[in-house]
Specification:
Blueprint lengths: L10 H12 L12 E8 L2 H7 L8 E10 L2 E9 L16 E13 L2 E12 L5 H7 L8 H11 L2 E5 L18 E8 L3 E6 L5 E6 L5
Antiparallel strand pairs: 1-2, 1-9, 2-3, 3-4, 4-5, 5-6, 5-7, 7-8, 8-9
Length: about 210
């Protein structure tokens, strides 16, 4: 968090420490990936570009997660805009708007997975208290139209199909066309480190302990 998830980090220092941790990486079990992981550092230009939007003061970028459930994977980004939506702050807020990228994954090597991008979703809108008071004022009659507008906003859910890699044989073990491979170089019960193929960057996550 102190490095703005990589935006203001001393990359050489982080890379040296990362290599030291990766030295202890071993082959992992697929069940070890299960659950939600919070991004704490990345060098990926697309993710850093998203985080950098906060400099405009028009967008808040809260927690960024990866969540594994069976052979499904979600990238989750919590967002907000001042006044209009509930805040999105790291660690303690659900955000006012949630971006989800739905994917499928399969193992193609001892420490490598191939990812298929399926769909992007934008929704789970939580408007700010101020905006709700404007739409449905407390001291004026709440008309049917007021309530319908509020329900529409809260129920907003945009879905965009994503171009995914072409179907390949289940056991080919090779990267598929238009696909992305991630090399999971370290995994334990608290930390996940991955490197995207090509120049996709490196990612460091911490495990999220879900409250029961």
């Amino acid at each position: 968090a102190g490095s703005s998830r990589g935006l203001n980090a001393e990359r050489g220092v982080v890379a040296e420490k990362q290599l030291g941790v990766e030295h202890f990486g071993t082959e992992w079990e697929e069940r070890d990936l299960e659950g939600k992981w919070r991004l704490i550092y990345t060098t990926a230009s697309d993710v850093l570009g998203l985080i950098q939007l906060e400099n405009s003061k028009l967008v808040q970028v809260g927690d960024i997660f990866q969540e594994f459930c069976g052979d499904n994977l979600q990238n989750i980004v919590l967002l907000s805009t001042p006044f209009l939506l509930q805040p999105a702050k790291q660690g303690d807020c659900d955000g006012g708007l949630t971006l989800r990228v739905l994917q499928s994954w399969r193992r193609v090597g001892p420490r490598t997975i191939a990812v298929q991008f399926n769909e992007a979703q934008l929704g789970e809108v939580q408007i700010s208290d101020q905006l709700e008071q404007i739409i449905t004022p407390a001291f004026l009659p709440r008309t049917f139209l007021n309530m319908r507008i509020l329900q529409f906003i809260r129920g907003l859910n945009l879905k965009v199909p994503l171009r995914s890699f072409e179907k390949g044989t289940e056991n080919s073990g090779a990267p598929l066309s238009d696909g992305t491979c991630y090399h999971l170089t370290y995994l334990d019960q608290d930390m996940l480190i991955g490197r995207a193929s090509g120049s996709g960057g490196t990612f460091i996550f911490e495990k999220v302990i879900e409250e029961v």
